[in-house]
Design goal:
The structure holds two protein chains of two kinds. Chain A is α/β, with parallel strands linked by helices. Chain A has helices at 9-24, 58-72, 74-80, 83-86, 105-115, 125-128, 135-150, 160-163, 173-191, 208-212, 225-235, 246-252, 258-274, 282-302, 313-319; strands at 94-98, 120-122, 153-156, 196-200, 216-219, 304-311. Chain A has a five-stranded parallel β-sheet with strand order 2-3-4-1-5, covered by helices on one side. The radius of gyration of chain A is 24 Å and the shape is globular. Chain B is of the alpha+beta class. Chain B contains five helices and five strands, in the order βαααβββαβα. In chain B, strands 1, 2, 3, 4 and 5 form a five-stranded antiparallel β-sheet that branches. Chain B is globular, with a radius of gyration of 14 Å. The interface between A and B is medium-sized, with 24 and 32 residues.
Chain lengths: 326, 117
């Protein structure tokens, strides 16, 4: 199936039937007797954060609020202003939160659900993905059905795991299965009439077909000095005995995330407690944050490991001009 | 074909003679190969390098190949890393600039020539 092809809803049913038939063939691994309905795989939860709990850059916040107007100002937009006639297909939205890890994307997803007064259903890939042919697609269908019934907002955290590019040169059954799963997901997203949230550190891994179906992409940036000062103030408890110079820490250490600051506060406090000191010295915060920055620099030098997979000997030969590396 | 041994054997003096883009590439490949050997406990046997234009700027991509001693299967590990446009040699920039987003452009041969010059 060519990338980006629009799939008729009927095709998904045919696809599911084909996968079930394939799974039923002799020699194909079969799941153990299914004792519980697929629905028990999923559990929505009450959002754990609101926007009051998150320190984020103003532009990021504004971009999220713009999309939420789709839900909060629906009548004005679609009825009074007539967008219901011109944007019929866009009365539901996907919001993709992307940016470096530790910048509050997952917290923001909870805050969005909280603002809408909805529960949140975080997709647990370990429960969706199955080694059995066709099972992953069936689990995805069940999850969307469950979300519809429960009214929860679907949240794909680390979404590139499922939304990454489909394989163009399918060389084995795993590639075929991966493509079937992604095609199924595309159809489900197309047909779904509600908000879906995505978060990723690797937006460039997304299949363009998924990118097109997401209304808004909101970039999460590392906090600026003002936000770092607010983060240090938030993570250092008022009751912590310390002589920390918060404005000094915020000014001196850039390029760090809220999660880094949280970790630095904990590590500095651990050191003071272990040494049985009565005050968490400013120097401990500096040492802790410098350790974090050093480890991040080492990782940045290395880049990101984006994939690891088994490949055929023929594939390796094709990469090395017909021979094998020695 | 570029065997990984070439990179591991390159001395600091030799690396210093290369353009900054290739210097960083060699150093990166060495680091990644060592990391793969340390973490995955496998011996990397060959590598291929690429560059691509993405929504977030230019990225180098390196692919490492090893044969798993237990399963006897070949494995491919891929690393990517952003590269500033100002560091890309003009001839490479010309090749990649007109490509579509995320299209891999091989730099293996250019790297081989650079380190054997």
């Amino acid at each position: 199936m060519p990338l980006g092809k629009r799939i008729d809803p009927e095709e998904i049913k045919q696809m599911a039937r084909a996968m079930e038939e394939q799974a039923a063939r002799p020699g194909t691994p079969q799941p153990e007797a299914d004792s519980s309905p697929a629905y028990t795989l999923f559990q929505e939860e009450k959002p754990r954060y609101s926007f009051a709990d998150i320190i984020m850059n103003r532009d990021t916040y504004e971009a999220i609020q713009d999309v939420l107007a789709l839900y909060e100002k629906r009548q004005l937009l679609f009825d009074e202003w007539g967008l219901g006639q011109t944007h019929r297909k866009q009365n539901c939205a996907g919001i993709n939160l992307y940016g470096p890890s530790g910048t509050g994307k997952s917290m923001a997803a909870h805050a969005i659900a909280n603002q809408l007064g909805r529960m949140i259903l975080t997709v647990d890939y370990s429960k969706i993905e199955s080694k059995y042919v066709g099972e992953t697609a069936k689990n995805l269908v069940a999850m969307f059905d469950y979300a519809k019934e429960s009214g929860a907002v679907i949240f794909f955290d680390e979404a590139d795991a499922l939304l990454s590019r489909r394989v163009t040169n399918m060389s084995n059954s795993t590639d075929v299965s991966v493509n079937q799963t992604r095609s199924t997901l595309l159809v489900l997203i197309n047909e779904y009439n509600d908000l879906i949230l995505y978060a990723t550190n690797f937006v460039t891994n997304y299949d363009p077909a998924f990118i097109r179906r997401i209304l808004s992409h909101v970039k999460f940036e590392l906090p600026d000095e003002e936000n770092r000062r607010r983060l240090w103030s938030m993570y250092i408890p008022k009751t912590l005995p310390t002589d920390a110079d918060i404005p000094g820490l915020a000014a001196k250490y850039g390029g760090i995330t809220g999660a880094d600051i949280s970790n630095a506060v904990l590590n500095a406090s651990l050191r003071a407690a272990r040494k049985e000191e009565t005050t968490v010295a400013h120097a401990y915060f500096e040492e802790a944050v410098e350790r974090i920055i050093r480890s991040k620099t080492d990782n940045a030098d290395l880049g990101t490991m984006t994939s690891k997979r088994v490949v055929s000997e023929e594939y390796v030969k094709s990469q090395f001009g017909g021979g094998l590396p020695e | 074909m570029i065997a990984i041994g070439i990179f591991l054997a390159l001395s600091a003096t030799l690396i210093a003679g290369l353009a900054i883009f290739w210097q960083k590439m060699v150093s990166w490949i060495k680091k990644a190969a060592e990391k793969i050997q340390e973490v995955l406990k496998v011996a990397v046997m060959g590598t291929k390098t690429f560059i691509m234009k993405t929504q977030e700027g230019f990225k180098n991509k390196s692919k490492y190949y090893n044969k798993n001693k237990l399963t006897q299967e070949w494995e491919e590990t891929v690393y990517t890393k952003s590269v500033p446009e100002s560091e890309i040699p003009p001839e490479i920039l010309m090749k990649v600039r007109n490509q579509e987003l995320d299209q891999e452009v091989s730099t293996t041969e250019e790297l081989r020539l650079a380190i054997s010059a």
